[in-house]
């Protein structure tokens, strides 16, 4: 469905993003970009995920000189407060305790550029996720699995426990995992 001859690079160290992009049936290579993901006081979440995705794209362009580059950034927002990845296990516990029994919003920004024709799109998707009330024991057990530590909001909806924590979702599931596949695909077609 996309021009098969074009080289696609996913600039992300997230194994989830790699798996998601693969599910579109696209051939691509992956590289890592290292960005200190600073959250600015008072910045709207949409601007945050778009800014960070663009920053990752600019870093990737130092390494990749042709074809299409894809980057993304995911954050969780509860009561207007941006929650990134947990700093440690105690932080993960507090985050999950806070999300328990409430609805939060997951924003994923993405930046795509066709380096050959310089067409570039920066966009985002948002999904509402509701957690049931979690017990301290459940949270501690999940933290012991190690899974929360590299994920925004300290959980993975795709994890065994994640599936047990989430009672309702409104919007794109893949967006929560880290890449809004449908919106991404529609936009990729525009820059080829
Ligand atoms: C909310 C949620 C987040 N996540 C993940 C997606 C992202 O990998 C991570 C958020 O961190 P990001 O900073 O968006 O991405 P990353 O550091 O993992 O990778 P890179 O910057 O190199 O692209 O949280 C899940 O896997 N499942 C979930 O349910």
Automatic annotation (TrEMBL):
<dbReference type="GO" id="GO:0009117">
    <property type="term" value="P:nucleotide metabolic process"/>
</dbReference>
<dbReference type="GO" id="GO:0047429">
    <property type="term" value="F:nucleoside triphosphate diphosphatase activity"/>
</dbReference>
<keyword id="KW-0546">Nucleotide metabolism</keyword>
<comment type="similarity">
    <text>Belongs to the Maf family. YhdE subfamily.</text>
</comment>
<feature type="site" description="Important for substrate specificity">
    <location>
        <position position="16"/>
    </location>
</feature>
<feature type="active site" description="Proton acceptor">
    <location>
        <position position="73"/>
    </location>
</feature>
<dbReference type="InterPro" id="IPR029001">
    <property type="entry name" value="ITPase-like_fam"/>
</dbReference>
<protein>
    <recommendedName>
        <fullName>dTTP/UTP pyrophosphatase</fullName>
        <ecNumber>3.6.1.9</ecNumber>
    </recommendedName>
</protein>
<feature type="site" description="Important for substrate specificity">
    <location>
        <position position="74"/>
    </location>
</feature>
<keyword id="KW-0378">Hydrolase</keyword>
<dbReference type="Pfam" id="PF02545">
    <property type="entry name" value="Maf"/>
</dbReference>
<dbReference type="InterPro" id="IPR003697">
    <property type="entry name" value="Maf-like"/>
</dbReference>
<keyword id="KW-0963">Cytoplasm</keyword>
<feature type="site" description="Important for substrate specificity">
    <location>
        <position position="158"/>
    </location>
</feature>
<dbReference type="GO" id="GO:0005737">
    <property type="term" value="C:cytoplasm"/>
</dbReference>
<comment type="function">
    <text>Nucleoside triphosphate pyrophosphatase that hydrolyzes dTTP and UTP. May have a dual role in cell division arrest and in preventing the incorporation of modified nucleotides into cellular nucleic acids.</text>
</comment>
